[in-house]
Design brief:
Helix content is 53%, strand content 11%. With 209 residues, it is mainly alpha-helical. Strand 1 (130-137) and strand 2 (142-149) form a beta hairpin. The relative contact order is 0.15. The structure holds manganese (II) ion. Manganese (II) ion binds at residues 31, 35, 79, 166, 168, 170-171.
Length: 209
């Protein structure tokens, strides 16, 4: 069977009500069903547009098309990572990183609390719409806290994302209004460290292969 040539909205690994009270059902549902879906739809529409232009042999504004494409693909990719690195509080959500990721964080940041502080500041201070991520630099073998603007600016393709936090207003406004710091504080109760550690372990394995 042919592999799919278009993107589709992934199912959440938990129910819409399960991240409450840290993320309400209404907030999660609109974020997943409306906002994430819009990036999936947008990326697929760009594929169609490129295909039509290729068939017709017509001119295309490549700069504009690629900017839009990277925006939607980045949005789709990051939201997929974000949903997977959340879990209901007490049922996989919250706590501290363990395993190889816990050790790497301790080594780089001198402890979990310092990492948490730096990641929180990255999230709270992201200008406008953006993300805070924990990534891994394969050249220096260090975990790095990074900010991503919108969905696509400052994304380094060679820096895999271990943990993502969406701080666009659409991610928290229904629950927290303008208080992004409250949302970031709540995130620590639903962060799925096992998933982040799984990503890191898979990455180390693939690098060693
Ligand atoms: Mn979002």
């Amino acid at each position: 069977m042919d592999k799919p040539h278009f993107y589709s909205l992934p199912k959440l690994p938990y129910g819409y009500k399960e991240l409450a009270p840290f993320m309400s059902e209404e907030q999660l549902r609109i974020h997943h069903e409306k906002h994430h879906q819009a990036y999936v739809t947008g990326a697929n529409a760009l594929f169609e547009k490129l295909e039509q232009a290729r068939k017709a042999g017509g001119e295309l504004d490549m700069k504009a098309a690629l900017k839009e494409l990277s925006f939607h693909i980045g949005g789709h990719l990051l939201h997929g990572l974000f949903w997977e690195n959340l879990a209901p509080a007490g049922k996989g959500g919250g706590g501290k990183p363990a395993g190889v990721l816990g050790a790497a964080i301790d080594k780089e940041f001198g402890g979990f609390e310092r990492f948490q502080k730096e990641f929180t500041q990255a999230a709270v201070s992201a200008e406008g719409s953006g993300w805070a991520v924990l990534s891994w630099c394969r050249m220096s073998n260090r975990p790095l806290v990074m900010q991503i603007e919108k969905h696509n600016v400052d994304v380094c393709p060679a820096f895999p994302v271990l943990l993502a936090l969406d701080v666009w207003e659409h991610a928290y406004y229904l629950d927290y209004r303008n208080m992004r710091a409250k949302f970031v504080e709540a995130f620590w109760n639903i962060v799925n460290w096992a998933e982040a550690n799984r990503r890191f372990t898979a990455l180390l394995k693939s690098a060693a292969a």
